[in-house]
Design brief:
By secondary structure, the chain is of the alpha/beta class. The chain contains 19 helices and twelve strands. The strands form two sheets. Strands 1, 2, 3, 4, 5, 6, 10, 11 and 12 form a nine-stranded mixed beta sheet that branches. It has a three-stranded antiparallel beta sheet with strand order 7-8-9. About 5% of the residues have low confidence.
Length: 529
């Protein structure tokens, strides 16, 4: 046992060492590139880009967009374009930086934040791709709420509050930048649930653990006019309209542009802000060198320690990981229990039919359940349970995830248990009958104890898979471990350290779970002696 735990500790230390080595190598590579850059390049007024220099060059190019956004809709109309849709704008920008795509079409203010985080590598093309206006979305089943929100937007616009909020984040001139932030007055009463995607600065983003931004403050002002308390739900952008339609949220505010297809599904308020879609392109190597030379006095390449501080220490960003880890463990534990209970019941029903032809109707139901669950993706099941089955129910998202993953795991556990039972020699069943035991007593006292030892490794694998499957919980706006890492990425615009940290935590959890299963196997073998 001592040797085993020493080996486990060695693996964990090796994993941490690997993370540090990779991070240092990445940093060293970037530092070498900076040192090699010449400071004698001549600055140009418009930096040269590699492949895309204007909107006219987009035909036939690889274009990155965020799934469900206006940019994604407009990009689909570009002739011969290879449009690659990403769940997050940050992922599209990372792909552009790594030369996997040629450009990114995204909202102007978000583009500015991305380019600022990738100084000397990316740039925004001078000409805008399309002008747009932002509006909130409300279910077509709530015309009264639509009228109330429209009235509220007009009131905060006429009073100057709307302009003050926007000017605090996006001033027309730097001298016009204000420090006005709207604080909600109404603190008790009916909730106004607002769905958003907090990866869209400066409209909505995380700061010091809270969601803030232009849209959030506008939401508070609207809620005050309606006499309701604002509750913000963060979720994937392409899930917001579905959440509003199903009643999971009262209103969606996340930089929505009115389009014909969207208008068929949802009602739009009057617009509250204007913006435009722009093109982010990659600079040519020579332009990157020139840009780096010009900005070298203002921008210093961060050290590895600086990057660790920015990603995990600053504003207590490590809390996103710990909160997500806690939720992941809760979901996994209780889903595991549901999976075991239901899975064993399904397995016994199927074995009872196979052995003596009993419970034929229940067997058909069990087979149908197992077939449907195993033949459909876990993410689809999660979305159906949340947006369809519990559409009109205000239910805790963790409970939804527990139910969804528990029901999914039950189908796989059932087949594992059934195979374990069927592997027991038929003579064991005959022995039970000869002793006068009923089928149920034979299963409980003779068959299941033997089968459990046979299926333990397979059950362990199923629980490891269950732990990793919980990473899709973010699609219903639930903070799990993976989403915690995504939030850090959306704030720091760095992918490497947050993703490595998430991967290491999953690795450690799987190692511990595997160690627990191995320990239980050894104990059961000792009992055989």
């Amino acid at each position: 046992m001592k040797k085993f735990y020493n080996s486990l500790l060695a693996v964990m230390l090796a994993a941490v060492a690997l993370m540090c080595t990779l991070s240092i190598s990445v940093f060293a590579s970037e530092a070498d590139q900076q040192l090699d850059k010449s400071s004698s390049q001549t600055e140009t007024s418009v930096p040269e880009t590699e492949i895309v220099t204007s909107a006219a060059d987009l035909s036939g190019k690889k274009i990155g967009v965020q799934l469900g956004t206006t940019g994604a809709i407009l990009a689909d109309d570009i002739k011969d374009a290879n449009v690659q849709k990403f769940n997050k704008g940050a992922d599209a920008v990372l792909a552009l930086r790594q030369k996997k795509i040629d450009c990114v079409i995204i909202d102007e203010q978000t583009a500015k934040a991305f380019v600022d985080a990738n100084k000397g590598v990316l740039t925004i093309l001078p000409d805008s791709f399309a002008d747009e206006a932002y509006a909130a979305v409300i279910s077509k089943d709530k015309p009264e709420l639509l009228a109330q929100v429209n009235s509220a937007i007009e009131e905060i616009r006429d009073s100057g509050v709307l302009q003050k909020i926007i000017a605090s984040y996006i001033p027309e001139k730097e001298s016009d930048k204000g420090n006005y932030h709207y604080t909600q007055v109404v603190t008790h009463g009916e909730k106004l649930v607002m769905a958003t995607n907090a990866q869209f600065p400066p409209y909505e983003y995380y700061e010091s653990g809270d969601i803030t931004g232009i849209d959030i403050e506008i939401g508070r002002a609207i809620a005050d006019k309606l006499g309701r308390v604002l509750t913000v739900e963060d979720m994937e952008f392409d899930s917001i309209i579905g959440a509003v339609k199903s009643g999971k949220a009262d209103i969606g505010i996340a930089g929505f542009t009115v389009t014909e297809d969207r208008a068929k599904q949802i009602s739009f308020t009057i617009d509250y802000a204007s913006s435009k879609q722009v093109i982010i392109a990659r600079l040519k190597a020579s332009a990157q060198e020139s840009s780096a030379s010009v900005s070298s006095d203002d921008y210093e390449t961060p050290t590895f320690i600086d990057r660790l501080y920015t990603n995990f220490v600053k504003d207590d960003r490590w809390r996103y990981l710990t909160t997500g880890l806690c939720n992941t463990l809760i979901i996994t534990l209780f889903a595991m229990l549901i999976g075991i209970v239901i899975g064993f019941i399904l397995a016994i029903i199927r074995v009872a039919y196979d052995k003596n032809g009993s419970v034929p109707i229940l067997n058909i139901i069990a087979k149908l359940y197992i077939t449907v669950i195993r033949a459909t993706p876990a993410m689809v099941q999660l979305l159906i349970i949340y947006y369809v089955i519990f559409a009109s129910v205000d239910i805790n998202k963790i409970l939804v995830a527990i139910i969804a993953f528990g029901l999914n795991s039950a189908a796989y556990v059932a087949e594992v248990v059934r195979s374990g039972i069927m592997s027991i020699d038929n003579g064991q069943f005959e022995a039970g009958k000869s002793l006068g035991l009923k089928f149920s007593a034979t299963m409980i006292n003779i068959i299941l104890p033997q089968a459990f030892k046979n299926i333990l490794p397979a059950l362990g694998n199923e629980f490891i898979s269950l732990l990793k499957e919980t990473s899709i919980s973010g699609y219903i706006g639930l903070m799990d471990l993976t989403r915690g890492g995504d939030i850090i990425r959306s704030v720091t615009y760095e992918a490497f350290l947050p993703l490595i940290a998430v991967a290491l935590i999953y690795l450690i959890l799987v190692i511990l779970l595997s160690a627990g299963v191995s320990c239980l196997e050894r104990r059961l073998k000792k009992n055989e002696r």
